[in-house]
Amino acid sequence: MQIYSDDSESLTNSNAISIKGNFSWGLVKDQKDKKDSKDEEEKEKEEKEKLKDSIQEPISNFVTLKDIDLQIKKGEFVAVVGDIGSGKSSLFKAMIGDMLNLQKNALTKVTGSDSLDTKCDEATRALITNELLGNSYDLNRPVTTITDKSVQINGPICYIEQEPWIQSKCVRDNITFKICDDTIDNENYVNTIKACQLERDLQNFEFGDMTLVGDKGIMLSGGQKARVSLARAVYRAMQLGDQESIVLMDDPVSALDTHVRQMVFEQVIQGLLKDKTRVLATHAVEFMQLADRVVVMEKGKILDVGSYSELEKRCDYIQRIS
């Protein structure tokens, strides 16, 4: 995925990422298909659902990330930390454009106010979503990607999800997305395999990297899936060469044992990717200590930002896990 920014005051030549605003997964609830034939009980339930949908709720009830304001410099290594449910994964999703940014001008145009405390029914929230997306909004269609100046990315993105995404293909195709051998950068591929600690795994597979992994990677362990997913992003970042690529890693090493995790950190994050912009969601204290900056999240907000040594003196969360 590649997102390039427009010129802006918030995105300087030294910044790789600038993200500001309030973000939501959606302002309307999914609408289920209704059957043509309904008995009295079904009709009664439908009427209750309509009444429920008309209830006025504050827009803030649908906000996942609140008052976000973060800039990340090119080549910086940033650790994003916080308890489960604090908003780490949502922050990554907002960065790649998978969340709605509740822009004040859209709220004002539809409701007459830019306050997130404004109460409105589902129909009004649908109109707000329509205004944000800039096209006709269908209640039965999931929220689509929105890009605006509040989320600006200066360079191509390589993104690793928390849950590894594996295709029903061989290991090699899952990493390179290539089919023909002559299209693969062999040097980068071999270096990626070694750094992601996959070499021994491939030696144990009957057909090496041509081994089929089965539906959703059923033939692989959790740690192997995580390392294949990581290898895909690393290989892509290496393919981009000197371009100022950005690697977003949503805790890809949590499924690894301590030794392998340390090797991956040294050879990938501080090795092959050392010149790239790296953003890592993690619970590992040893990684936070080596980051240029640590972003602490709590209840969908950025609680604090600073070096580990700075936060160790003033941040309750860092003090608690240290």
Q: Can you characterise this structure?
A:
This protein is of the alpha/beta class and 322 residues long. The protein has two domains: 2-74 and 100-153, no CATH class; 155-321, 3-Layer(aba) Sandwich (Rossmann fold), CATH 3.40.50. Helices cover 35% and strands 20% of the residues. The protein has helices at 40-53, 88-95, 104-111, 122-133, 171-176, 186-195, 199-204, 222-239, 258-272, 285-288, 308-314, 316-321, and strands spanning 2-4, 15-24, 57-58, 65-73, 77-81, 100-101, 119-120, 151-160, 246-250, 277-281, 293-298, 301-306. The longest helix is centred in the C-terminal third of the chain and has 18 residues, at 222-239. The protein is globular and about 60 Å long. The two termini are 35 Å apart. The relative contact order is 0.17.
